[in-house]
DNA sequence: CGAGGGTTTGAAGTGCATCAAATAGTGTGG
DNA sequence: CCACACTATTTGATGCACTTCAAACCCTCG
């Protein structure tokens, strides 16, 4: 891929939105892009980290594994998501494992380039702090949801987030108030279940209950929302910070 | 309190550990210190934020409340903890509410001073990113625990964390291997229960089970751990990243 | 068409919540 | 120093949500 194209792609990543062309240039020079197939393990928790990543296409699963083999999915990363960069602050070790769940291209960059920029570009550093603050808030919401939402509510919330954009930022698409909305589940139901901290069986049954309670239609991976507000009311009666 | 004393206290706060004396000076000038009694509500979620805080003594509860009045405790903050600073990145609104749970002194600082420093001191910014990265990792652990740990295990983990230091950083006190350890629960059992996302009744019963399963003794707020390793094994068989 | 994974369904069990009530602890004013 | 009031904690009984185990179903893809 040409340097220009790489720069264009990086500009589209929220972390790099504010960067000078010099920095983007520097990033593009040390960027590597490679296609990975579904199932590829990019790195494992505690691996020594040299580089961090950007999902260009496809999707990546962030997860941890306990001694007794239970997997906890801490994130499903859609396109344009940066990951692995925090290894810089964890003794250069990745704090989780990452696996490709949808074949696609992944760009990688040396952590050293990021670190160098943080060392002398406070505009960039501040921007990164802002991004981390948003992530922190979203994690707090997740904790809240795990504590107080039922399985059907968590699925409802997931649908609402999917309507915005993947799961990273809370975009605004107020366009479809009062209209029938159709969306496709972005991942396997089993995977979504894992992400929401429930068993596949529970997901299946909870989705059925959600269907009955909020007038959504489900057929395979296709979900049709008849009444968005009903879904919001149902899912977010237990949210302190309702999604957009 | 004299400026020197304030500076000494600030130096003891991890966020300010790397700061120049000039910056500390500037901070101390705009610092306000006030004593608050238990129960005082410092601010509410979505309040407009002018200042951020440091717990000098006593303790503070971070929480959110849902429409139907359910409270989720997102943090119990011991001394030397900074809080409210992320409001800077949430449209100057606090992303949670904060209440004093143990009377004590709280120092406050203008967010503007923090912002100014972030704007031109990349060393400080980078340090703050590091702190946020650690916090992020701890939150991920918390999510993991909520997903896969039982109530007794969560209590066990809480005890282990209490052994280190409050709940903010993972200090190392390897001193007491193989010895009998006595500790005092830092907060009311009801409060700890809320922090761990369970009901007081569940906490009581779970503690009893933990007692039976790991040979700890409990008498009021006093806990004696006979066999630290047993407690670790019991609590953290479901941890991907065991506490120190 | 047949194999294999993803998904659903059923039956049974477990853990936590809830409701109700007893008990222990703490701080107060007398 | 004691009795009262109030809160924290414990205990019991019951119900619900989710898990687990087992098996059927479905769908896609070679």
Characterise this structure.
2 copies of one chain form a homodimer. Chain A is α+β, with helices and mostly antiparallel strands and 244 residues long. In chain A, the strands form 3 sheets. Chain A has a 4-stranded antiparallel beta sheet with strand order 1-8-3-6. A 4-stranded antiparallel beta sheet of chain A has the order 2-7-4-5, covered by helices on one side. In chain A, helix 1 packs across helix 2 and helix 5 crosses helix 8. About 3% of the residues of chain A have low confidence. Chains A and B meet through helix 3 and helix 4 of A and helix 3 and helix 4 of B. Chain A binds a DNA duplex (30 and 30 nucleotides) through helix 7.
Instruction: State the low-pLDDT regions of chain A, or none.
Output: 166-173
Helix content of chain A: 40-55%
Report the oligomer.
homodimer
- Give, in spatial order, the strands making up the sheet with the most strands of chain A: 1-8-3-6
Secondary structure class of chain A reads alpha+beta
Largest Cβ-defined interface: A-B, 46 and 46 residues
Give the C-alpha Rg of chain A: 19 Å
- Could you tell me the mean pLDDT of chain A? 92
Task: Describe the secondary-structure layout.
Two copies of one chain form a homodimer.
Chain A: H1 3-11, H2 21-29, E1 32-36, E2 41-43, E3 51-55, E4 59-65, E5 71-77, E6 82-83, E7 97-102, E8 104-110, H3 111-120, H4 122-148, H5 151-164, E9 181-184, H6 189-195, H7 200-214, E10 216-219, E11 222-225, H8 228-236
Antiparallel strand pairs in A: 1-8, 2-7, 3-6, 3-8, 4-5, 4-7, 9-11, 10-11
Chain A binds a DNA duplex (30 and 30 nucleotides) through helix 7.
């Amino acid at each position: 891929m040409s340097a220009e194209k790489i720069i264009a792609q990086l500009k589209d990543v929220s972390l790099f939105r504010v960067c000078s062309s010099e920095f983007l240039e520097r990033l593009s020079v040390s960027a590597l892009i490679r296609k990975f197939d579904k199932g590829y393990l990019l790195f494992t928790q505690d691996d020594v980290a040299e580089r961090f990543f950007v999902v260009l296409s496809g999707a990546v699963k962030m997860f941890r594994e306990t001694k007794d083999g239970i997997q906890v999915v801490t994130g499903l990363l859609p396109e344009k998501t940066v990951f692995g960069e925090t290894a810089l602050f964890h003794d250069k070790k990745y704090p989780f494992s990452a696996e490709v769940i949808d074949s696609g291209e992944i760009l990688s960059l040396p952590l050293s380039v990021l670190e160098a920029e943080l060392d002398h570009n406070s505009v960039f550093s501040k921007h990164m702090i802002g991004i981390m603050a948003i992530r922190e808030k979203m994690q707090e919401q997740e904790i809240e949801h795990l504590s107080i939402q039922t399985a059907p509510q968590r699925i409802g919330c997931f649908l609402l987030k999917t309507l915005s954009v993947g799961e990273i930022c809370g975009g605004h698409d107020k366009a479809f108030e009062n209209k029938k909305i159709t969306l496709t589940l972005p991942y396997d139901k089993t995977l979504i279940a894992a992400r929401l901290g429930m068993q596949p069986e529970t997901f299946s049954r909870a989705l059925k209950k959600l269907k009955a309670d909020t007038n959504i239609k489900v057929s395979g991976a296709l979900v049709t929302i008849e009444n968005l507000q009903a879904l919001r009311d149902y899912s977010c009666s237990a949210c302190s910070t309702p999604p957009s």
